[in-house]
Amino acid sequence: AYCDMSNKGWTLIARFSNNDSKYWIANGNFWYDRVIPHEDTGSPLKNKDMISTAFWKVRGDDFKITRSDDSSHTALLQTTSHCLQGGTFRSKITSYGNYRNSAVWASNECRGNCSVSYGGQYKTTAGFEQHSCSGNVQSSNYTGFWCDWGVGDGAVMMIGGGGSGCARADHGIGITEENEAKFGGSLPHYDFGYNADNNPPSKYSLNLWVL
Length: 211
Known about the structure:
Helix content is 6%, strand content 29%. The protein is built from three helices and eleven strands, in the order ββαβαββαββββββ.
């Protein structure tokens, strides 16, 4: 795994890209089950989906998201309250339930969330559009896990506000237009972005780190 020793020692654990197959939203394998690294785990600058052994092995307290086209790895968002509680990212994200095999993961809610602070290029990064909106599903300074709103969309990790006043729930990482939020399906779904009815950016990807 790649470790950024020039910046506190953050460990790169995963990357979400729209420049290849939909590994993070077609099914739950990468989130729940995969135990073999995928793609180049040693470079934060590649624009391909990636998962490192660190995703299920490295324990930490907080996580951050950065852009693959930012060599300084400035946090677009960073959790502020020991979100991971000394566990791995996989243990956190899978603790809310088993949503493999197209199981519906939520209805008009997020299964959980963590407080975050924003920085860097967050205002111009896809998925962060609701950073200052507070809605009936979630308020602005949070990242939610396993979110859904209404008949029509959801996200594995919803960034910022969600619900009727905050562009529903399909903004962040692992977004879908499925009428009941789940992996796969026939409606648009992407590894990250904003409003799954729109084509998401493919010129950069999002890196996930733990500390």
